[in-house]
Every structure is written in C-alpha cells, then in structure tokens.
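Appendix B, Record 12. Input sequence as logged:
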Amino acid sequence: MLRPQWILALVLALLVAGAFAWLGRWQLERAVQSNVAATGASETVVPLSTVARPGSAIRDDVTGQKVTVRGTFSAADYRLVGDRLNKGAVGYWVVGHLTVDRENAGQTSTVALAVARGWSASRDAATSAMRALARAGDEPVVLTGRLLPTEAPVPPDPKGDPQAMTTVSVAALINVWSEMDNADAYEAYLVQKGAPAGLTAIDSPPPIAQNTVNWLNIFYAVEWVVFAGFAVYMWYRLTKDAYERAVEEANGPSAGSGTEVGRGTGESSRTEGP
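Logged structural output:
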C-alpha cells in the first residue's frame, strides 16, 4: 500500500473527494435562499413598469420595492379603509384611484393603480381630507412610494356599512371605481411617500428578508458528500484488492509446492515399503 502508484492514487482520490465536498458545501449554501433581493435593493426607486405588469400578481422579490409612477387621480374614487395600523395606532387610510399614464404602464389601454395616500386616527379627519383631495381636481402627479401586493377582500359587517373596507383589495376597489370599463389594473397598491394635507404619512418600512429552504439543493449536497466518501472508498477497495493479490502471489506457489512434494514422498514410501 506504500507503493508510489497507490500513494499517487490516494492523492488523486483526496483531490476528487475535496472537489465533491466543495460542491456539497456550495449546494448547501444555495439551499437557503432569501425571498428579498440584496440589502438596499428595495430602497432604490425604479419605474413601476419595470417591476410590475397590469393584471398580474407582483413577484415576491419586488414586494416592498420603491417605485415611481405618473398619473391622474379620479376625484370621485377616493375610499376609506379602516382598521389600519400606523406605528401601533389604529386608524384609517385614504385610498385613491390613480389612472396611470400609458407610457408609464407600457400599455395602450387605461391602467388603474390603487394608492394609499395617507393615514388618520380619526374617521372624521380622514373623511375631511378625502373630500379636500376630491376637490383638488385631476391634475397629473408624479408619485413615489412602496409597492405592495393586493390584499384579500373581507366581507363587510352585515350590521354595519355595506361599503366599509378594511383591506386594500384591488378586486373590491374595481367594483366601486368609476370609468373602469375596458380598463386594466395592477394587482398591487402603492403606499405613497409623504402625505397630503390633513393626513399622516403611512409608516411603510423596508421588507424583512425571509429565508426559505430549497430541499432539492440539500439533496444534491448530500449526494456530493456521498460521492466524496465513495472516491476515498474506491481507493481503499482497489488498494486492498491489490495487496491481497500480492500476498496470494507471494504465498500461493510455495504452499502448493510443499503439498506436492509431501504427496510424492508419501507415495514413494508406500511403494518401497513392501
């Protein structure tokens, strides 16, 4: 086993096993993936059309992305959304209907975007601010904010206001917005940076990275470890077989010769005896 060719084979087996072990480590590192892009990427303001398409859900990796968009608010389509927390306090959001400029949407048809414009702890104050926004007209605006996925609709309290909303559901808003015939909408809403007069800016922190485990990569990592062990085992097995053959070749012929000589001597003694 100390012959040069087997020592060289051992070095080669260790190199192969090391390469397999490195590949296993690489697969293991890739097994834990982050759902959020690199740190700070969500804070870089990009055009809305580069991260979202009308009629399609936004991707996980762009949830919470800061975007900019140009459009016009519909004065008749402001709505209050209740039970909204802002830095621990419960209140109301004022949500508007922004008709996105076609060049901003990358579409040839009208595209709608829900925008959470601001928050108020008082329903009366929120209603007053909402009315002021409706009177402001429909001048084009350029907005910056954080893009979030649409929320699921919640049926209103049967004993309360049937028009009351507690979630920013694009599906529900489309049913009450005007001028939505043949129009498309983003399956997301924008939390506006800053707030109009009479409202408080909505607290919208960057997304928290959430790690997920890719079990397929873990399986591949285990495979590479097995391959590394197999490379060393193959060297051991081949070396052992070679050693056993060498021992047999060294001991086999002499043992056979002794047996044949013994038999010949015995036969001669028995022949010459009588």
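The mean pLDDT is 82.
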